[in-house]
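Repro:
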Amino acid sequence: MKALLCRAIAQDISTLRLEDMDLPPLAPGEVRLRVRAASVNFPDILMVQGKYQHKPDLPFIVGTECAGEVIAVGDGVHGFAPGDRVMGGGIAGAFAEEVQRPAAVLRRIPDGVDFVTAAGFTAAYVTAYVGLVRCARFQIGETLLVLGAAGGVGLAAVDLGRALGATVIAAASTDDKRAFLKSYGADHVLPTKGFRDAVKELTGGRGADVIYDPVGGDAFDEATRAIAFGGRLLVVGFASGRIPTIAANIPLIKGFSVVGVRAGEYTRRFPEKGHQNIQAIDAMLAAGKLRPHTGARFPLSRAVEAMQMLADRKAFGKVVVEP
């Protein structure tokens, strides 16, 4: 089979190569999938660059989230059979024609959901759910400001916030991204820079109750001036490239919380709650309450190009690779 292989840690992701390789025999408890679609996520890029918390042994197949069909099951696997449509993530190996996963990290794709949607659903939406529901304890009627709202992680927060009853203010860097967000259903759309006064005006001077920030850098700095007293500023990532800092007197005086959002670590520490999170977002997807958006689709032969689109912050919603 063909797979996108990382043989050396490098800042330049163009060093990745599509190679022919064989998977090892199935271990007990594993499932082999024919990959139909794989989602591109920022951790995929960071792993290649050696900047992510998890550092796979070299060489490794790139990609951490996919959807496909079961083609074989290992000893001790119950509940899955060849032909089942499944999705899952969390382990390197998705940018390939086939992949092997522990059965425990897979689940069935809801009826009516296609492979492309399923491939890009879990990581973005479970992050949004952990952030908004678990960390921020979001309440119906509160105002949610999403920074970097046109990207996959930000757009999931816009979508979930709308479903939870938020007034959603979506911030994005370009006119075309803002036009897309307006058509997607955001209540208000603002530029990523210079949003402080507009947020205050839209909220009657209060500021946003919850700010979801996957951008960091200057956007984070401004967010500390656009948040309500008692608000929750969710630190999701640093797509801008700069990890910001904050003086302790700012949250003290303004009475807001800064909360880190690590959905994967949350699941590892609280597995039962992690299971509940997945059940919640899957139920909302199956009921049509969520509207995941795939902005670009690439064949496996152009997987590096797909990753570069995400790195360049040109994506609207999710970017998906289809072997």
